Structure formats: structure tokens, C-alpha cells
Amino acid sequence: MPGDIGAVIDDTNGDPSSRPFSIIARDDRLLPFAVEELDLRGRVVRLGPTVDAILSHYEYPPAVARSLGEAVALTALLGSVLESHGRFQLQTRSDGPIDTIVVDYEAPGQLRGFARFDADRVGAANSTGELLGRGHMALTIEREEDAARYQGVVALEGDSLEEAAHRYFSQSEQIPTLVRLAVAEAITPGGRSWRAGGLLLQYLPSGISRARDLPPGDAPQGMEPAFAAAPQADAWTEGLALTATIQDHELVDPNLSGERLLYRLFHQRGVKVFPERELTEFCRCSDRKVEDLIRSFPPDERQMMVGDDGRIGVTCEFCGALRSYDPKQFD
Q: Can you give the pTM of this predicted structure?
């Protein structure tokens, strides 16, 4: 790997200029970049306190925490396509020990998430694919400005979130895409904390790419269809080869800046960086929202919510906050 001498093209002010890459590593940041010589675009995400807060709301087994951490990093990479407004959600439903993962990204950079799991089955799983099992992963975008809602669904087939993301982009978007995710538990003077990181790389050549034709349903058996994938572009092949050199620890290293990582990968071709985006943990729940929800139920259904202590208890799945109410206040 090259040392600390190098430069990136900084386009943060709309006026590209070369400068030494920053060696200052900052957590909870998303850094967009481009390698224009290879027609590559991408984003790097580094998560520290934000992902640690999300994974610490519940006492997740380490394997579940890692899977949820990967989902948070992936959601940040995909949701950042929304620059200022809107919401992106990643949701999995499957027959695995982790039957549900939900992560929300609220533009421009707020994250929350949770996982539901079967504790008795988690210990028997040997990989992320076995933890997730078979089912589906849904990716939903809600744009506020036009109230539009878009959803893409891809199968989970006993594989990792990285592989599911690759399948989604191959089948739905038809954009050559590479996703790398990493999660680690760091030991610090203050105790243990979770970290996560990820990189998304896409090949977006100039001009309009021709979409693949649909397969002919009446093609003779054994005959290779004419729509077979075209040879892989040299630029994309080079991008894949360079990105394959990334080690997981580089994606979560608190002392390695995103710019320095990008320079390590693409210094020979030149890399352009764009304004960083700050990421934070959040939750939408509030006393007023919960009270309005309870009040929306008819009296007989509210009575069914009353616990043995004579109160209505509501726990937020995302942040774990428990709220307790006197049923009489809703009469």
C-alpha cells in the first residue's frame, strides 16, 4: 500500500481542485466519490457511535448484532441516494434465526434499526446466510416532494446481505455494482463498542447503456440465448480487482480516513471526492405519537391492552423506549 503522500480531487465546493488527501478519520460519515477515468461512482461509509447506539438498544447476541450492523451500513450506502428529503427502508423477512431486520434511513442522514431473532436457533448458525435463511429483502424509497413510493424485492437464498444486494442490482437495476460490508466490536478504554463500515462501487459509463433483452421463451433447449451477458468492460474489471484488495479491518479502522482508503485503492487513476454527509442515530417515536395511536383504538380494544399492573405499556421496537399509561386518560 502507498504511504501518506498523495492527492485527491476535491469537488466539495463545486470547483474541482487537487489537494493532499485528509488523514483525519471521522466516524459516522458517508463520503461519495468518483473515479472518472474508469467511469466508477461510489460511496464509503464509516460508522462508530451511531451504529453502536442502534446495536445497544437490546442485548443482541454478537452474531445478530453483526448482521444488524451490516444492514445499517448497507442502508446508509443505499439510502444516501436521497440527498435532502425522503425515507429509505431495508427490510428482511425470512425463515432463519433472524426472521426480521428493519433499518430506516431518513434523509439527509438519520438511521434507526432493529432485529427480531430466535435465541435458541442463533447459536446453531455458522454464517450470516444461515442466520438470515430464506425469504426476501425489500428496499423501499418514499419521496416527500411528490409522495412517490418505490419498492424493489429480492430473494434471500441463504446468503449474505452483500450477495443479496448484488443480486438486486443485477436483476432490478442492471447496474454493475459491488458492495463490501464489515462489522467489528472494538475494545476501547471505555469498554466495548460496535463499529461498521462499507463501500459501494458502481460502473456508470457515459451515454445510455442498452438494457438486456428478455429471454426468448421458445428458444430450443440447450441453445444459448442471444441476450447472454456481454463481455465485462475493462474499466469495471479493473475496479473490481482494485476493490478486492480491501481488507475488512480497513472498513472499520477508526484511524483510517475514508479519503486515505480511497487513495490506496485508486491513486493511479485519480479519485474525486464530494461533500461528506454526517450520519446520526434517531427514532421517530414520541409520547404524542404513541398517545394518539392508543387513542385511535376503540375502548374495548384499549381495554385488552391493559396489563396486570393496570396500565397500558408500549415499547418502541427501534429504540426500546418503554412508555406506560393510565387507561383512564384515554376515556
A: 0.86
